[in-house]
Structures are given as C-alpha cells and as structure tokens.
Amino acid sequence: MKKIISRLGIMVGLASAFISPLLQAEVPTFTIEIRGHLFYPSELVVPANTKIKLLVLNKDPTPEEFESYELNREKVIMGGARATIFIGPLKPGTYPFFGEFNPKTAQGIIRVEQ
Amino acid sequence: MVDAVLLVLREVLEAALMLSLLLALSRQYQLPLTWSLWALLLGVAGSWLLADKAYEISEALEGTGQEILNAALYALVALGFIYLAILFLIKAPAFLMNASAQTDSRALLRAVLLQPVLVAIVSLSLMREGSEIWIYLSSFQQQPDALASALIGAVIGTGIGMSLGAITYYVLIFMRPRFFLPTFLIVSTLLAGGLAMQIAKALLQIGMLDSAGPVWDSSFLVAEQTWLGELLYALLGYDAQPTPIQLVFYAAAIAPILLLALWLGVQKMRLGVQNMRNKKNA
C-alpha cells in the first residue's frame, strides 16, 4: 500500500511538472484589441526578460492573423474571437507585429524595457 | 491584390515544393502518380473543413486548439519525411530493380505503405496552409469589390506557387538517379528538421514550452520577411532567431536519418575493406 501511495506521489509530481507551465498563474498579461483592422494599443510596453501572456481580442467581425517575424509568432484570430499568445523572455528593444490579413493598417510594436 | 498574391503564395509554396519533390521521387522510381490526385483532393477538402471549423478549433483546449492541431499536423508530415528518408536509405535499390517486374514492385509498394504516406504528407501540408487562404478570403465576404480583387490575387499567387513547384519538379526529374537520391535524402532531412522546429514554435506560442533568448540572430544575413527568407522557410523551415528548444527539436528529427546514414556508411566501408582483403589473399 505504501508503495502504491509513494508511486502515486511520484506520478502526481511528474504530472504536475509537465502541467505547471500550463497553469501560468504568475505570468503578466497584456491585452491588445483589434478594431477596424487596427491594433489598440499600437504600441505596448512590456518588461524585459519576462515571459508574457498577450491576450489579443478581435472585435472585428472579420478574421485577422497576428504575425511577427521578430517575436517569431503567428496566429489566426477569427472574427469576434480572442487569442492567447505567449512571448518572451525578451531582450530590451522593439518588436514589430502586424495583421497579415490587413498588413497596411494593422501594425503595432511591442517595446521591451528594463 | 498584391497582399493577396503574397499571402497565398506564402501559404501555397511549401505544399507545392513538397508535392514536386514527391512527384519527382515517384517519376524517378517509376512509381504510380495517382496518389497525387488523392493528395490534392483531400488537401483542398480538408483545408476547407479546417477553415470552416476554425473558430471551434481555436477555442478548443482552452484556446490552444489551433496550435495543438498545427503541431500535430507538422509532426505527422515530419514523421512522413523521416520514414521516406529511412525507407529510401535502405530500400532505394529495391524500388529501382522492381520497376521492371510490375507485380513485385506493387507488392513492395503496398507493403511499405508508400502511397498512403505520400498522400498524407501532401494533403496534411495542404490542409494546414490552405485553411489560412480560405479564412483570409472569407474576410472579404461583405465587400464584393475587395473579394474580386483578393480572388484574382489568390489565383495569381497559386499560379506562381505552382510554377515554382513545376520548375522544381523538372529540375528534379532531369537529375540522374545517382544524384537524385542524395538530393532527395538531404531535402527530406532538412524538411523534417524544419517541421520539427515548427512544432516547437507552436508549443512555445501557447506557453507549453518555455522560451529562452534566441541562440543566434541571422536576420542581418537573411531576414525572414525577404524573398530568400520565405523560400528558405518553405524549404528548410528557416528561422532567423531560433530558440534553443527549437534546435533540440530540429536535432531530434534529423538524428534518426543521420545515424542510419552513418551506420550504413560504416557497414559499406567495412564490406569494402573485407573485399580488398579477400582479393589480396586470393
């Protein structure tokens, strides 16, 4: 019985080690909205060397693709949907992003500061 | 319209190059080509289905559905290329020899599931890339003028992608089999590595993997948003700023192929040495 309990303990420990990154309770969250094929705010300041959760809310009825070569991220966000994108830890600097479906208007910058 | 051309070309390019490579493989080894029709049919139908269900997919699994699905599709295609590379490393001569004896060749093809693997690679790539095109076009539903221009752009983009695929195909089928096999093996290995890197990228994006700073930044050499960058991305999964975990995934994908090639090389060398000794003794 003891053996089983200790085994269970190990299993739970292992499982939590894998799941813990998913919980992410302590990750700072920043929100960006898409309205009329524009990003609000178009410039977001975030802390350096920190993992960050971006919440992108698409308030348009049309889909958009959040894309950034510098951040190495791309995600389709359907009309009226929300997307979670983890970025960082990043070095200080500017990281442009854009909406691939409306690249002329939908542009923004993430400014990473110490 | 230019936006549409670029977007569609970017999406179509990777699948077109994979299709060309595998069609050339089939031609070089005189295998049937019918699989390609199935691949295109399934790929286009699948991409439409994925686009139609895009909202549900991205909301699934607490908002990570899109990335998990993409990672799974990348993984299946990468496994397909690893399988093909290993198969042709070991069995390439058998495919050539049996080309004349129709019945044997068919049995071998069926035994190694070659055609289902080819269909899976092309159709799954096409599904993933193509769904974005449908979603993009759907955003113009309410604006008939913009839709017409986007559709024209999409047709041009598809045309350019297919032309580049056709050029690749003809370059590959005019290669001598001696040169084609190594080329195929190298490209398959690079593709498998590039796809594995994309899996890591998808998991990083949903926070399942933890990111560290990029290992290098080669964007001053080839930026990803340039034409060369896009082409290298489609061919090799080029990333100007890869993170360590992406490189681990890359290495894990190419390791089985490289190790097998190395082992086969060593075996061959041993055999050569033995033959030389036997000749000397005789």
What does this structure look like?
The complex is a heterodimer of chains A (114) and B (282). Chain A has 114 residues and is α+β, with helices and mostly antiparallel strands. Chain A starts with a helix and ends with a strand. With 282 residues, chain B is mainly α. In chain B, helix 4 packs antiparallel against helix 8 and helix 4 packs parallel to helix 10. The termini of chain B are far apart. The interface between A and B is large, with 35 and 36 residues.
Number of strands of chain B: 0
Number of helices of chain B: 10
Rg of chain B is: 21 Å
Secondary structural class of chain B: mainly alpha
Ranges of chain B where pLDDT stays below 50 over 5 or more residues in a row are: none
Major beta sheet summary of chain B: none
Kindly estimate the percentage of residues of chain A that lie in beta strands according to DSSP: over 45%
Count of DSSP helices of chain A? 1
Secondary-structure element string of chain B: HHHHHHHHHH
Distance between the termini of chain A: 52 Å
Biggest sheet descriptor of chain A: 5 strands, mixed
Helix content of chain A: 10-25%
Sketch the topology of chain A as an H/E string, one letter per element. Answer: HEEEEEEEEE
Features:
heterodimer, A: about 110 residues, four-stranded mixed sheet, B: about 280 residues, 10 helices
